[in-house]
Amino acid sequence: MRAPLPWLREYVEVPAGVTAEQVAADLVRVGLEEEAIHGGDVTGPIVVGRVLEFVEEPQKNGKTIRWCQVDVGGTEPRGLVCGARNFVAGDLVVVVLPGAVLPGGIAVSARRTYGHVSDGMICSARELGLGDDHSGIIRLVEWGLDDARPGDDAIGLLGLDEQTVEVNVTPDRGYCLSVRGIAREYGHATGAVFRDPADVEVQAPAAAGFAVRLDDGAPIRGVEGCDRYVARVVRGIDPTAATPRWMRRRLEQAGMRPISLTVDVTNYVMLAVGQPLHAFDLAGLVEPIVVRRAEAGEKLTTLDDVPRALDPEDLLITDSGGRRVLALAGVMGGASSEVGESTTDVLIEAAHFDWVTVARTARRHKLGTEASKRFERGVDADLAGAAAELAVRLLVEHGGGAPGPATDADRRPPRPVIRVAWDVPNRVVGRSWSREEIVATYTEIGCRVTAEGDELVVVPPTWRPDLRVGVDLAEEVARLRGYEHIPSVLPAAPAGRGLTRGQRARRSVARSLAEHGLVEVLSYPFVSPSVHDVLGLAADDDRRRAVRLANPLSVEQPELRTSILPPLLETLRRNVGRGQADVGLFEIGLVVSAGAARRAAPRPPADDRPDDATLAAISAAVPAQPRRIGIVLAGLRELPGWSAPGRPADWADAVEAARAAAAALGLELAATAEARAPWHPGRCARLDLPDGTLAGYAGELHPKAVGALGLPARTVAAELDLDALIGASGEIRRAEPVSVYPVAKEDVALVVDADVPAARVEAALRAGAGDLLESVRLFDVYTGQQVGDGRKSLAFALRLRAPDHTLTAAEAAAARDAAVARARAELGAVLRGG
Questions:
Q1: What is the Cα–Cα distance from 586 to 719, expressed in whole angstroms?
Q2: N or C: where does the chain have the smaller number of CB atoms within 10 Å of the terminal CB?
Q3: Tens-place pLDDT, residues 558-601
Q4: CA 458, CA 185: separation in Å to the nearest integer?
Q5: In sequence order, what E strands does 46-159 have?
Q6: Each residue of 143-181: pLDDT tens digit?
Q7: What pLDDT was estimated at residue 732?
Q8: CB-CB contact of 308 with 365 (8 Å)
Q9: 3-class DSSP state for residue 310?
Q10: What is the predicted pLDDT for the residue at 12?
Q11: CA-based diameter of the chain, in Å?
């Protein structure tokens, strides 16, 4: 909201000499965020000039310029080049002389152009920051300033030295979307006297007024869509009457474009007091006006010439007894009743609409207007009559109209009452204000306060619909008494609390993967339905059953991920596309499992805590969200150097990274070959926990998926079920003692059938060697004539160690033989060369 300082001074006593920066600082103290300071950046000399004569000079480029002689109050006229053609000799204009600085820091100097030295420039409104008009230069006679004299200072004459404060208004402070509200807050911040512009005598309603009926047959939340509708008639307005310059200037300073007298008056009053108004062309209206909900199939073409299909929740303004739709209540009027250039009789609407109804309508039709922005934040319920009266007075004064009888359909509910213990602000904020100070603060913001023992009965002012419970009032006390006086006290951490087991486990896994050389990322959980086809998922794959969002951030990604890989692969693609060829990424996050069909969650009320049954129903309706680990690698895993060439990442690196994550929780994963999309069918490993529980998959991605996603060739990935890993890990991992005795090394080469996985051979060796086995590692695979067709040789390095003594050769050999015997018994393994 923008508040010009001269306008602000009309409603509150801002001391002379106070700058916009000081005003903004005072407003910040009471919770309004400073957005910007506008105006006041023009410096002279900028003066009034009179055009004495000019010569039109056609140019080679087809343009015709005027070489003007202009009297600026000196002894000699100035020669100025001007491209505009909307003035004649004798006109008073605005001349910017060399040395002046225009808005945006544009410095003006004498310069040669079109064969002349132009000693300054004649300005348009846009060049001076007075509006968007650049069709011609300013003619002061059109601005009502024809009594000015050449040489007069134009900065003060045109208000170019006026400053405007712009503040950011939070949703709970809708009354500050007006100069009235900002003036009130400035009064709270400084103690300055506030003068309410809405404190006017309002014409009493009469039976002869334009008929209005409130007929909301389907209230939202049990609240009527419109509980007050004021209609005022003004007849005989001069359609050629222009908006006074001071009003146009204030609208422009507030960021609005002047249109016509009637429209400008409604906008001016809205900016002044915060009540949106709407003007209808009275000639086209048929009594009575009916405020009702839309019916199925109804349509309305709004003022922006867009035909709109209406929703049964939309609140409408209609006439002819409800048969013709005129406007979307609180949002935008319709084209059929628009005030035009020939309109002489108007009906001014000032109403109080339900904020939820207006907010939903504005979002449904994607129509964010100045009116809806105010209504959905809460408009003063007592303001409609005064705002309509102010608009009628301005139309009569500047348009020559005559006021007609007033209508006031009023069905407002009783004012809400807050009962609160007087010391709630002290308990909430941590200060010790006296009871008198607290009551005085409530009274200062406009509340009516009575005491009942230790309890205060508070009736909030009508312009503060956000004040509903005691803590709202406590916030007001803190705000007006000064946030800077609230002590900063560091809360003491209670003993015996800290991270949960799951949190510690997730941090351990993340730390392990980072130490493994991967970079953690966070990606959005939204995916496109087409990603399942890109990844090559089967038609009956459960991962295709995704939860669809009712209101997605992007219509191209309306589903929640069922696998952590798609967004992670998109992150990889983006990094590779920006020149990062060698990438290793991981992410720990939730996926959403649609599972069986679920009941719709109930919609709890927004004004109170849901009961336990409602919370349980909501929880039951929420789909399962298991936590996963995603890992992707592309490019080189080992960079080239002077001593060795680089090595690209392959499926084994994905398996190793997955095993590193499990090792952080004290778990070992067994890898077996398995086909699963989106991995390459011959380079995919199923990863199992020691008890056989599926932990995830790792390997090289399918070439078709890699190509469709635009990833580097032979990109590898892994996906693990972190919940399963944490569930299988122990509560506490105890450090194992390190043996001080030497290790015994035994190598064995076993010949097995070619289709026997190496992981099964390794498991058999571990089981057979017993407790003396410290580690086993596959270091060679051989196929060829020496082992026969359909066979392969797997060479393993066994490392044996005892915790309490040095192993003898016999003990080491016995452990080795037991391991080989177990592999022979389970898999038919034969010791090579034996």
A1: 10
A2: C
A3: 999 999 999 999 999 999 999 998 999 999 999 998 765 566 78
A4: 20
A5: 46-58, 64-71, 78-82, 92-96, 101-102, 106-107, 111-113, 116-118, 121-122
A6: 778 788 898 888 888 888 888 899 999 888 999 999 999
A7: 56
A8: yes
A9: coil
A10: 94
A11: 122
Which residue is it, tokens 């609390």? 497
At residue 747, the pLDDT reads 93
Report d(CA 469, CA 425) in Å as an integer. Answer: 12
Q: Which pTM value belongs to this model?
A: 0.67
CA 581 to chain centroid: 33
Q: Are 251 and 264 in contact (CB under 8 A)?
A: yes
Q: Ranked by mean pLDDT, which of 486-500, 571-585, 608-622 comes out on top?
A: 571-585
Mean pLDDT of 781-792: 90
DSSP state of 485: G
> In 115-205, which residue ranges form alpha helices assigned H by DSSP?
154-158, 179-190
> CA 387 → CA 1, 316, 410, distances in Å?
19, 21, 15
User: What amino acid occupies position 335?
Assistant: A
Cα(358)–Cα(753) distance, integer angstroms: 74
Whose CA is closest to 665, among 588, 740, 601, 603?
588
- Which residue has 């022979």 as its token pair? 824
What's the CA gap between 155 and 147, in Å, rounded?
16
Contact 24, 34 (CB under 8 A): yes
Question: Would you give the distance in Å from CA 777 to the centre of its chain?
Answer: 53
Q: How confident is the model at residue 411 (pLDDT cuts 50, 70, 90)?
A: very high
Residue 493 buriedness (CB in 10 A; 0-12 / 13-18 / 19+)? exposed
Q: Which amino acid is at 434?
A: S
d(CA 329, CA 214): 12
The Cα 328–Cα 310 span in angstroms is: 9
- Residue-averaged pLDDT of the chain: 90
Centre a 10 Å sphere on the Cβ of residue 800 and count the other Cβ atoms it contains: 24
Per DSSP, the three-state class of 100 is coil
Model confidence over 534-556: pLDDT tens digits? Answer: 999 999 899 999 999 888 988 89
Please tell me the distance from the alpha carbon of residue 153 to that of residue 76, in angstroms, as a whole number.
18
* Chain position carrying tokens 């004021």: 230
Mean pLDDT, range 484-510, rounded to an integer: 86
- The confidence band for 38, taking pLDDT boundaries of 50, 70 and 90, is confident
Q: Are 50 and 150 in contact (CB under 8 A)?
A: yes
CA angle 63–69–74, rounded 5-degree value: 145
- What token pair was written down for 538? 């089967």
Nearest to 230 by CA among 121, 81, 451, 390: 390
pLDDT above 80: residue 342: yes
Pairwise CA distance, residues 512 & 588, whole Å: 12
Angle between the 758-769 and 809-827 helix axes, to the nearest 10 degrees? 140
Q: Read out DSSP for 410-437?
A: E-PPPPP-EEEETTHHHHHH-----HHH
Q: What is the sign, positive or negative, of the torsion defined by CA atoms of 64, 69, 72, 74?
A: positive
Residue 619's Cα: distance from chain center in Å? 26
CA distances from 341 to 238, 260, 338 (A): 10, 8, 10
Could you tell me where the beta strands, DSSP code E, fall in 72-177? Answer: 78-82, 92-96, 101-102, 106-107, 111-113, 116-118, 121-122, 163-168
Phi and psi at residue 12, to the nearest 5° = -150, 150
Give the helix ranges, DSSP H, for 256-383.
261-273, 355-364, 370-375
Residues in the chain: 834
